[in-house]
Design a protein that fits this description.
The structure is a single chain. This protein has about 220 residues and is of the alpha+beta class. It has two domains: about 60 residues, GTP Cyclohydrolase I, Chain A, domain 1; about 140 residues, 2-Layer Sandwich (GTP Cyclohydrolase I, domain 2). Helix content is about 35%, strand content about 20%. A hairpin with a 5-residue loop joins strand 2 and strand 3. The radius of gyration is 20 Å and the shape is elongated.
């Protein structure tokens, strides 16, 4: 399972004797925020900013909580599929909040998940939590899409899986080219969702029938 890491350069070695990367302490993380505030041109000791390093570190604990969770274990509890049900299961419009690994700015959008179960199904809330676990890491959208789909395929072993993500990237809307209104759409189709044209068409039609408006960025 991944662990949260922050690059740290001081006289203290950044790796342990075993070769694993050492996670900086909370005090070191807050000191890094103070440095960024000073680098930006402000005074971290002034009244409005005095508590900011602590607040930023606490915010990072929320933003990147996914590093502390095992997505495979999350889907471990399953239920026997009703014998009378052999159709597609779809969750659409799952709110997604992540951070771009290139600039650490928000990615905001929606995820849509579909799968055709074989012997087991999983509670819908677990699929929502799966999206959360992978989203609350530093990401690129393409990898995020694949991670969600591949984990469902690995754990549930369905006949097929489809994941589509539509998202707006603030690294494009608030900096750089500064072009609001642009969204990226990525997909990962496995098994029958890739190989069976009818299944693929049904999934894409289901998630597109009431396409949601992306969050304002």
């Amino acid at each position: 399972m991944d662990s949260a890491v922050v690059e740290h350069r001081t006289s203290t070695p950044s790796h342990t004797a075993s070769g694993a990367r050492r996670r900086p302490s909370r005090a070191e993380a807050e000191a890094a925020v103070r440095t960024l505030i000073e680098w930006a041109g402000d005074d971290p000791d002034r009244e409005g900013l005095e508590g900011t390093p602590n607040r930023v570190v606490r915010a990072y604990e929320e933003f990147f909580a996914g590093y502390a969770e095992d997505p495979v274990a999350l889907l471990a509890t399953t239920f026997e599929k009703p014998s009378s049900y052999d159709e597609m299961i779809v969750l659409r419009d799952i709110r997604l909040e992540s951070h771009c690994e290139h600039h650490i700015v928000p990615i905001l959008g929606k995820a849509h998940i579909g799968y055709v179960p074989t012997g087991r199904v999983v509670g819908s809330s677990k699929l929502v939590r799966l999206v959360e676990v992978f989203a609350k890491r530093m990401q690129i959208q393409e990898a995020l899409t694949s991670q969600i789909a591949d984990t469902i395929q690995e754990v549930l072993e369905p006949r097929g899986v489809g994941v589509v993500i539509e998202a707006a990237h603030q690294c494009m809307t608030t900096r750089g080219i500064r072009k609001p209104g642009i969204s990226m759409v990525t997909s990962r189709l496995l098994g029958s969702f890739r190989d069976d044209r009818t299944t693929r068409r049904e999934f894409l039609s289901t998630i597109g029938g009431r396409r949601s408006t992306l969050p304002e960025s």
